[in-house]
Amino acid sequence: MKILYLQHVPYEGPAYLETYARNIGAEFSGARLCDGELLPGRMDFDLLVVMGGPMGVYDEKRYSWLVQEKLFVEKSIRAGKKVIGICLGAQLIADVLGAIVHTSRCREIGWFPVKRSDGGSASRVGRILPDIFFAFHWHGDVFDIPKGAVHIAESIACKNQGFVYDERVLGLQFHLESTAASVRGLYDNCGGELNEADFVQKPDEILRTNHIHGCNKLFEIMLDSLMSA
């Protein structure tokens, strides 16, 4: 199996995804778009994972590589590849599938509960989600659910937390791949976004690690299910 990831900033890398790839013996590679690395010319991967980042899907003037990345993600979906988008990655998938991405009514930063949506059980991957679980969040933008996709997850602050398209394309607004190091990286680089808003936690709450193992395990199960579909 070959797994390819796309990285948008140095501090939001593959995190637990790299451990998962190593554990299953997958061939693992990435394109660090933030460092000027080019997208691969061949689509010989089995799974594409589009990571997060602080930019928006419409910031092509500032991040010119977004134009080619969107085309690459769309081409991957049309080619029948398995694709996962996390946070910004999910927004990029939603965008290429024709859905609107827009500013959320509030930022959601920290460890907050997510629930499987009422229609989540209509998807094979959605049925894996517990009724309620904790996940890590750091976002100010959100996506609408693409036409033809199944809405699988929601939170109090963000109605659209996840979707599945064609049982092989998964968009997650929240982070299950987070590790203690990746959470620290986000905090160190984006901590200036913290304020006293309702869904923005304090540093000691953000940096706690008690939910990480459960998130990583759920991420692993969802990856297994997606790859076996």
What is the fold-level CATH name, i.e. the topology? Rossmann fold
Number of structural domains: 1
Which structural category fits the helices and strands?
A: alpha/beta
Q: Could you report the average pLDDT, rounded to the nearest whole number?
A: 97
Can you put this structure into words, describing what you see?
With about 230 residues, this protein is α/β, with parallel strands linked by helices. It has one domain (about 1-229): Class I glutamine amidotransferase (GATase) domain (Rossmann fold, 3-Layer(aba) Sandwich), CATH 3.40.50.880. The chain has helices spanning about 15-25, 65-80, 90-95, 180-190, 205, 210-229; strands at about 1-5, 25-30, 45-50, 80-85, 100-115, 130-145, 150-155, 160-165, 170. A hairpin with a 3-residue loop joins strand 8 (about 160-165) and strand 9 (about 170). Helix 2 crosses helix 3 (about 90-95). The protein is globular and about 45 Å long. The two termini are about 15 Å apart. The mean pLDDT is about 95.
What are the defining features of this structure?
alpha/beta; 229 residues; single chain; Rossmann fold
Layout of strands and helices, then pairs:
Layout: E1 2-7, H1 16-24, E2 27-32, E3 47-50, H2 65-78, E4 82-86, H3 88-96, E5 101-116, E6 132-143, E7 150-154, E8 162-165, E9 169-172, H4 180-190, H5 203-206, H6 212-228
Parallel strand pairs: 1-2, 1-3, 3-4, 4-9
Antiparallel strand pairs: 5-6, 5-7, 7-8, 8-9
